[in-house]
Amino acid sequence: MVTTEKRAAPLQRTLREYRSELAMLGVFLLFFLIMSFISPYFFTRQNLMNVMSQVSSNAMLAIGMTIVIITSGIDLSVGGNLGLSGMIGCMVLMNTQNIFLGVMAMLLVSSVVGLVNGFLIGYLKMPAFIATLGIMQVCRSLDYVISNANTASKFPEAYGFLGKGKIADSFPIYIIFIIFMFCVFIWILSKWKFGRFLYAIGSNAEAARLSGVNVKLNTLLAYVCSGLLCGFAAWMMTSRLMACDPTYGSGNEMDAIAAAVIGGVSMSGGKGKLAGTAIGVLLVGFLRNALNILGVNPFWQGSVIGAVIIVAVLAEKLSALQLKK
Fold first, then answer.
1. Phi and psi for 166 in degrees, rounded to 5?
2. How far apart are CA 229 and CA 277, in angstroms?
3. Would 21 be classed as within a structural domain?
4. Residue 303: CB partners within 8 Å, gap ≥ 6?
5. Is 254 within a domain?
6. Using one digit for the tens of pLDDT, what is the confidence trace for 169-210?
7. Which CATH number belongs to the domain containing residue 69 in this structure?
8. Which one of 40, 91, 132, 225 has the minimum C-beta count within 10 Å?
9. Is residue 45 part of a domain?
10. What's the domain count of the chain?
11. pLDDT tens, 60-90?
């Protein structure tokens, strides 16, 4: 009897710890099952690959968004950062035909944008919403100024390796890259001191400071991570489309926030897991796809995603209230 209880205890702890993620996984599977019956086009290899291709960039942005939300912050500049870093990198690539220089330019620019966000928020104590909103506008403006509202293209064919390449002509390379990046940052958040510091900052920044955590530096690093991931998102998007337009990344911040919140990341900070964010990315992507298949007016799709975000946040709040009882 004692042995059975001992075996059940870890399982109960796991179920309690991952209850939000498991709940959203259940919702996703139910949604997937219903759509498979409604439309014969939904559960097909071509449709699944199309959706995975479309959510690839959002997956990168959602990882970064999760990291900053855990610190009780937010990064509204991810879409603008993707557009600006992608445009600068693609212009370097177009003019030099050097893939390495183009990709490095993307990652450098996106990291610098993240560094500016982190300095404004971590060291100058600006509200994350205001700071990143301002940086978003700066990035959007510079994107059009630098490109003169023109599209960058004519890249070397090899640049399409990440976005279009396949293993054995069947399995996309970008899916492996997405899984790899999620695994890396899950490991960082769960095993590194940096990850534990981020959760501590989000739970109570002052208590974390008094415990010896360098709140300013770790907050800055969180936004640098978010910025770097914007660079990877730009790389994946431009590699898939083999072009870069000034409109790229527009509105992507909302899908990234939606994926994180739907995945159980608390907007109050200090709570959330990237496993849940991965489920959120898939749910948002397949929800948009289902709305298209069902012929829902595109103008209504934003309303549906917004409603899902509100429901997810409300569910998280109600769950927190129940735990307090």
1. -135, 150
2. 15
3. no
4. none
5. no
6. 788 999 999 999 999 999 999 999 999 999 999 999 999 999
7. 1.10.3470.10
8. 40
9. no
10. 1
11. 999 999 999 999 999 999 999 999 999 999 9
In a domain, 292, yes or no: no
Query: Both tokens of residue 218?
Result: 């770790």
Residue type present at position 145: V
Query: Could you read off the pLDDT of 51-67 as tens digits, one per residue?
Result: 999 899 999 999 999 99
Q: Which amino acid is at 74?
A: I
H, E, C per residue of the chain: CHHHHHHHHHHHHHHHHCHHHHHHHHHHHHHHHHHHHHCCCCCCHHHHHHHHHHHHHHHHHHHHHHHHHHCCCCCCCHHHHHHHHHHHHHHHHHHHCCHHHHHHHHHHHHHHHHHHHHHHHHHCCCCHHHHHHHHHHHHHHHHHHHHCCCCECCCCHHHHHHHHCEECCCEEHHHHHHHHHHHHHHHHHHHCHHHHHHHHHHHCHHHHHHCCCCHHHHHHHHHHHHHHHHHHHHHHHHHHHCCECCCCCCCHHHHHHHHHHHCCCCCCCCCCCHHHHHHHHHHHHHHHHHHHHCCCCHHHHHHHHHHHHHHHHHHHHHHHHHHHC
CB atoms near residue 313 (< 10 Å):
14
Total residue length of the chain? 325
